[in-house]
Specification:
Structural class of chain B: alpha+beta
Oligomer: heterotrimer
Largest sheet of chain A: 6 strands, mixed
Shape of chain A: globular
Strand content of chain A: 15-25%
Largest sheet of chain B: 4 strands, antiparallel
Structural class of chain A: alpha/beta
Number of strands of chain A: 10
Shape of chain B: globular
Strand order of the largest sheet of chain A: 6-7-8-3-9-10
Order of helices and strands of chain B: HHHHHEHHHEEEHHHH
Number of strands of chain B: 4
Largest interface: B-C, 52 and 71 residues
Chains: A alpha/beta, B alpha+beta, C alpha/beta
Helix content of chain B: 25-40%
Strand content of chain B: 5-15%
Helix content of chain A: 25-40%
Chain lengths: ~260, ~350, ~280
């Protein structure tokens, strides 16, 4: 199968009992592209993210992922070992709560270096050096490499999680409200960091948020979801500056303009 | 010096001889008889039967004597004997609704068909020491045991006629035998009930108590508690007959717990179940509470991160023979492991001193 | 009921068969923990019941059995297990590693190299090498099934970061046949290299945890490490003060109230043989 997209979702539907969380969603993401999915809670955006990352199986529809070597896998019927392999190499998942993405009883260096060990790196010095370099990249002093995550502030923990996720230079990252639990002042810095790193490494990203500010800053393209449907999509600036759908207009008008 | 490490053989013999002597106690006092134990320390014998999972009062009493009254040690003796017994056949499930009850109570209904019957219970005794002469006014009534041949329907079945309590549906699956294959997680209720039925009474009691104090919570009422004799029947396929091979005493506790229900389903009560060989009431009640707590997933309840909801935690640690063995094994020499730790600590220290 | 009779080697033949099936499965998938229906044995769980069941299932009339605990034939539990087998099998027992066909061991591998047709049976308290990283059996089975083995190196990484060394000195995890990570049982890491390419059959029995695993003869067994922090089979930096051996694992014995100590071979049979050699070939 030939595809140019890195991930292609076609006609995906997922319900829970009587509730349709995602209804016939189609979405493509190209290499290096950042796609934002916005909507209020219950709009189906998180369900879509979980289907795209193989955590949920959709009721119908497909999710295709293309690796660097143009190998295409259908995420909906992938085996668990293959899915885990993707998670270790081509993908990463940044959780809203850094505690869900970090091992809290393992040092910062261990957390960041874990994926390298998981894919077979067996040189302590190299792993440690890479972890230290990544600490600096996420703007944490590398002398803190042996400290436990609990010694770091919430924003710093999120930086640790980002370093942990990006050390293997994945091709695609999924983010679920990556700055959700942080102070506004910290949020902006983390978003800047994510933007810088994602561009530098040319990573594609799918970011789910209810915050249009996050989308405005990060996303090339945006999809607006409501009640399991995509109600509007397009280039981020166009959608946010000239929203067509009434719901998008409502969302945009509800942001306090700074 | 090195000789001190040798001589294990002799040390063991000395220990065994001393044990035998102290077990016998003062030889001026007459030796206790097995039938005295089985007749007069009945509840100890019952606990050995239940946790040893072998119904034989005489062997249980023998084990009690041999273990100097240490119940876990006695249970251990019974278990190791039990495991060597050949399996000649499998009996049919016992039918507790046909039980000849010596005790039967319900905490949920004042009057029940067949009547409430306290039986030989400590419940309303005043816990005062009798004094050395024992209780006054011993009334012997040899008819007591067999007096009740009445029809005693199960209380929960009566509730079920109204649809007020969940159905007990026979899955018709052959249950695994936890003494013949190892338990795999996640496990089945049948496997859990087997494990709980032979579990340590104290462990279950503590767990059950924790559910009542807020670590979990299943709001149980005792729908029915019955103790009595049931027949063990076996089919002889060649002869196409069913014969009774034994009559055993069991304690059964059925609890009525908080109701479930959803938009689709009418509200109804749920069940916890305890069944234990012998008269082991505290254990049967505890078992029912723990059983109910472990059913959270099946009943669509949320996980509250409490021990009684974690089947691996409960089932892996409830067997007192496993627990006591491993806890006490640290008495065994660990020279070698300790020596290697010693080397390491020294190495790390010398490194640290250099730095 | 005066004297209860037991089958040869205590377990009934049916049970032995099921255990042998588990052993064969273990040999076919080196390092894989095979669940088996462990029986209550006349010794407590944690005192070698797994090893005893494996020995029971393998032992024949013409076998010669050696039992060691901490390297010694004469520690109390070794004596107790040897006596048990004498009582229920009547087979020959020996302290001589060379003469034994079956060696049941707790926490050591004999110093004298084993040969083909010998069976080394380990008593295993915790068969799951990931147990102290992940308490749930359900999860650890998943770790093995999906080969998510990175976390073992993560543990070693943390060791080095904290202490400058890998601070596992016994029960040091091994990779068997380039496939499964396994627990060698609490042998000192000094013994780990002996597991590699060993001509003998190595069987591991965990009674309480109901698992059997195995390493067939001449199987690759490597101890996990980092390239720049290679595995080291360490022992006390001393010689045996009885036989003068420099190549054996040593026990440290406190000899007086002032805390004076001496080092002696942990493998008592090895030590004795060395002493005899000295006496006869001075």
């Amino acid at each position: 199968m030939n595809m140019n997209e890195i991930i292609k979702i076609t006609d995906l539907t997922k319900s829970f009992g009587n509730i349709i969380a995602c209804s016939s969603i189609t979405l493509e993401v190209y290499p290096g592209e950042i796609v934002g999915i916005v909507g209020e809670s219950g709009s189906g955006k998180t369900t879509l993210l979980k289907c795209a990352s193989g955590l949920y199986k959709p009721d119908s529809g497909e999710v295709f992922f293309r690796s660097d070597d143009n190998y295409v896998q259908n995420i909906c019927n992938i085996s668990e070992p293959d899915l885990r392999q993707l998670m270790r190499t081509d993908w990463s998942f940044i959780h809203q709560n850094p505690r869900d993405g970090l091992r809290m009883n393992i040092s910062a260096g261990g957390n960041i270096g874990e994926k390298l060990m998981a894919i077979g790196n067996r040189h302590y010095g190299n792993i440690r050096e890479a972890a230290a370099a990544w600490l600096e990249k996420v703007e944490i002093d590398s002398s803190r490499i042996d400290e436990l995550p609990s010694n770091f502030s919430g924003g710093m923990q999120q930086r640790l999680q980002i370093a942990r996720c990006l050390i293997t230079e994945p091709k695609l990252i999924y983010m679920d409200e990556p700055t959700g639990g942080l102070d506004v002042s910290v949020q902006a810095k983390i978003l800047d960091l994510i933007k810088k790193l994602v561009e530098e490494l040319n990573i594609a990203a799918v970011i789910v948020t209810h915050d249009l500010g996050v989308v405005r800053l990060l996303a090339d393209r945006v999809l607006v979801m409501k009640d399991g449907h995509i109600v509007e999509q397009g280039i981020t600036d166009q959608v946010l500056d000239d929203p067509h759908h009434a719901y998008t207009q409502l969302l945009v008008s509800s942001i306090i303009q700074v | 010096m090195y000789v001190a490490v040798k001589g294990g053989e002799k040390a063991i013999k000395n220990a065994h001889d001393w044990l035998a002597q102290i077990r016998r106690g003062n030889t001026k006092i007459s030796e206790i008889k097995i039938n005295q134990l089985s007749e007069q320390l009945t509840l100890s014998v019952d606990r050995i039967i239940s946790e040893g999972s072998l119904f034989d009062r005489e062997l249980a009493a023998l084990a009690l004597k041999q273990s100097r009254g240490d119940l876990i040690e006695a249970i251990f003796l019974i278990r190791t004997f039990r495991t060597t017994l050949p399996r000649l056949a499998t009996s049919k499930p016992i039918n507790t609704s046909k039980m000849i009850c010596k005790r039967r109570i319900s905490a949920t209904f004042k009057d029940i068909p067949g009547g409430q019957n306290l039986g030989p219970t400590f419940d309303y005794t005043h816990r005062l020491l009798d004094g050395l002469k024992g209780p006054k006014n011993l009334v012997i009534d040899t008819e007591r045991d067999r007096a009740e041949d009445l029809d005693m329907p199960k209380i929960l079945d009566l509730l079920n006629k109204e649809g007020l309590i969940e159905d007990q549906i026979d899955t018709l699956e052959e249950p695994i035998d936890i003494t013949r294959s190892s338990i795999q997680y996640p496990t089945t209720r049948a496997a859990r009930l087997q494990a709980l039925s032979r579990a340590d009474e104290g462990f279950l009691l503590g767990l059950a108590y924790s559910t009542q104090r807020g670590y979990g919570g299943t709001h149980a009422f005792i729908g029915e508690l019955r103790i009595g004799l049931v027949a063990v029947n076996m089919e002889i396929p060649e002869l196409e007959i069913t014969i009774t091979v034994a009559e055993i005493e069991v304690t059964e506790c059925e609890t009525i717990n908080q109701f479930t229900g959803s938009k689709k389903e009418l509200a109804k009560f749920t069940r916890g179940y305890g069944l234990v060989m012998g008269q082991c009431e505290r254990k049967a009640i505890s078992m029912a509470l723990v059983d109910r707590a472990l059913r959270w997933k099946e009943l669509g309840e949320s996980y509250q991160n409490v021990p009684t909801q974690n089947e691996e935690f409960v089932i892996s640690h409830c067997d007192n023979i496993q627990s006591t063995g491993f806890v006490e094994h640290i008495k065994l020499p660990h020279y070698v492991d300790f020596q290697s730790e010693l080397e390491l600590v020294r190495k790390i220290r010398s490194q640290q001193m250099k730095d | 009921m005066d004297e209860l009779k037991y089958n040869f080697a205590y377990l009934d033949e049916q049970t032995k068969k099921t255990i042998r099936r588990a052993i064969l499965k273990g040999l076919s998938i080196p390092g894989y923990q095979v669940p088996f229906s462990s029986r209550e044995m006349p010794m407590p769980y944690g005192w070698g019941t797994g090893g005893i069941q494996v020995t029971s299932s393998c032992i024949k009339q013409d076998d010669t059995l050696k039992v060691i605990d901490q390297g010694s034939d004469d520690t109390t539990n070794a004596v107790s297990i040897r006596n048990f087998f004498k009582r229920v099998t009547n087979v020959q027992t020996t302290e001589d590693t060379n003469k034994a066909t079956i060696i049941q061991t707790r926490h050591r591998i004999p110093e004298i190299p084993l040969v083909e047709k010998q069976i080394l049976i380990y008593q295993v308290p915790t068969p799951e090498p990931f147990r102290f990283l992940e308490p749930s059996e359900f999860e650890t089975r998943k770790i093995h099934a999906l080969k998510e083995y990175g976390i073992m190196h993560l543990k070693l990484y943390e060791d080095i970061s904290k202490n400058g060394h890998i601070s596992t000195s016994y029960n040091y995890p091994v990779l068997v046949d380039d496939n499964y990570i396994s627990a060698p049982s609490p042998i000192p890491k000094f013994d780990n290299p002996k597991m590699n390419n060993n001509p003998a059959i190595q069987l591991f029995g965990a009674g309480r945890e109901q698992r059997i695993y195995a390493i067939p003869p001449y199987t690759k067994v490597i101890s996990l490490d980092f390239e720049d922090y290679p595995f080291e089979a360490t022992k006390a930096n001393a010689v045996c003060q009885l036989c003068g051996a420099t190549d054996s694992y040593l026990d440290e014995i406190i000899i007086d109230n002032a805390g004076g100590r001496m080092f002696v071979c942990s493998d008592t049979n090895y030590c004795q043989n060395n002493l005899l050699k000295k006496i006869y070939n001075p």
